[in-house]
Design goal:
Oligomer: heterodimer
Strand content of chain A: over 45%
Shape of chain A: globular
Radius of gyration of chain A: 13 Å
Number of helices of chain A: 0
Structural class of chain A: mainly beta
Structural class of chain B: mainly beta
Helix content of chain B: under 10%
Largest sheet of chain A: 7 strands, mixed
Strand content of chain B: over 45%
Order of helices and strands of chain B: EEEEEEEEEEE
């Protein structure tokens, strides 16, 4: 199983809503990532988790709150988002400890903030 | 500061032709250089990757050429097919234990039938 599964595929939320994005992998990867991708732009790194602990936060606003409840799951909690936060949110996972290992991406959640 | 520069922004190639996409990097700490292919509405998928100790790597119709002294690398797609029409991103990663990727801006490839 070389799959990273993200749910939901699409999400529309108001600026006062609270929602969560979910990501799951069963490849035994101990590094998991959230990327944000705006239309016609490359993915940009948001967060990195290693061994279920937050290792890198790329100065992401606090309205985005990541969580890694176990080695297979990664969540991104959303609260009080702005319309400019509308984007494709990608989850990825990889092995740890060896540089240059493949990062497997999910299909993404297309988020629209209204 | 854009750490990985990619060109061209878009590319149209006839079926059977060779598609060439170029990237240049500035940070000498980068030591892993993957290429990702992304179709509309999908996540990026790894095509091929190279390390700086190798000057060329070939997998099927896809070849990476790497020039460490010039800090440049390129993707060649031989015998391009309409199904290759997608956005291609070069990327770079440092030896940090993670696979954190710095992406180029992407190239939209259209292979005409």
């Amino acid at each position: 199983d070389t799959e990273v599964t993200q749910t939901p595929k699409h999400l529309v939320m108001g600026m006062t809503n609270k929602k969560s994005l979910k990501c799951e992998q069963h490849m035994g990867h101990r590094a998991m990532y959230w990327y944000k991708q705006k239309a016609k732009k490359p993915p940009e790194l948001m967060f990195v988790y290693s061994y279920e602990k937050l290792s890198i936060n790329e100065s992401v606003p606090s309205r985005f709150s990541p969580e890694c409840p176990n080695s297979s799951l990664l969540n991104l909690h959303l609260h009080a988002l702005q319309p400019e936060d509308s984007a494709l949110y990608l989850c990825a996972s990889s092995l740890l400890g060896t540089a240059g290992t493949e990062a497997f991406f999910g299909q993404g959640t297309r988020l629209t903030v209204v | 500061q854009q750490q990985v520069k990619q060109s061209p922004q878009s590319l149209i190639v006839q079926k059977g032709g060779i598609s060439i996409i170029n990237c240049a990097y500035e940070n000498t700490a980068f030591d892993y250089f993957p290429w990702y292919q992304q179709f509309p509405g999908k996540g990026p998928a790894l095509l091929i990757a190279i390390r700086p100790d190798v000057s060329e790597k070939k997998e099927g119709r896809f070849t990476i050429s790497f020039n460490k002294s010039a800090k440049q690398f390129s993707l060649h797609i031989m015998d391009s097919q309409p199904g290759d029409s997608a956005t291609y991103f070069c990327a770079a990663s440092k030896n940090s234990g993670y696979s954190t990727l710095t992406f180029g801006k992407g190239t939209m490839l259209l292979v005409s039938p």
